[in-house]
Design brief:
Elements lengths: L15 H14 L13 H13 L2 E5 L4 E4 L1 H6 L2 H19 L5 E5 L5 E6 L2 E4 L1
Parallel strand pairs: 2-3
Antiparallel strand pairs: 1-2, 3-4, 4-5
Helix pairs in contact: 2-4
Length: about 130
């Protein structure tokens, strides 16, 4: 379990509003988001993600960080339309699992480099 330093940090002046703002800022900017509460995923979506994992194109998922790791060679050889579809499926899956916004980060499984991000405006390929 993660240790939190939020209770130890008190802004000057000691106001409750400042302390709350600081806690929110630390949570958002340091990647120390509270763990997601697992939720039920529709079976059709679960099947699509399972196929991606079984094919080896997606090697692993980090649901808390809404990140998928992919093999770079097949990813780079794939059309933009297919990449967009994969991004949409992953974003839907992460949203269904943890209830956060509908987005996904796609990273190289070998070095962790970000390859793409799928969000409200579609796919952004790095």
């Amino acid at each position: 379990m993660r240790e939190s330093t939020r209770a130890e940090v008190t802004p000057k002046g000691g106001s409750l509003q400042a302390a709350i703002l600081l806690a929110i800022t630390l949570s958002c900017c340091t990647g120390d988001a509270p763990p997601a509460t697992p939720r039920a995923v529709p079976s059709e979506l679960e099947t699509k993600v399972q196929r991606l994992l079984e094919s080896g194109a997606v090697t692993r998922l980090d649901v808390d960080r809404q990140t998928a790791f992919v093999e770079p060679a097949p990813w780079n050889a794939t059309s933009l339309e297919v990449k967009t579809g994969v991004g949409a499926v992953l974003a839907d899956y992460f949203h269904a699992r943890n209830g956060r916004d509908r987005w996904a980060i796609i990273r190289n499984s070998h070095d962790g480099k970000q390859l793409a991000r799928y969000g409200p405006f579609g796919l952004s390929v790095d």
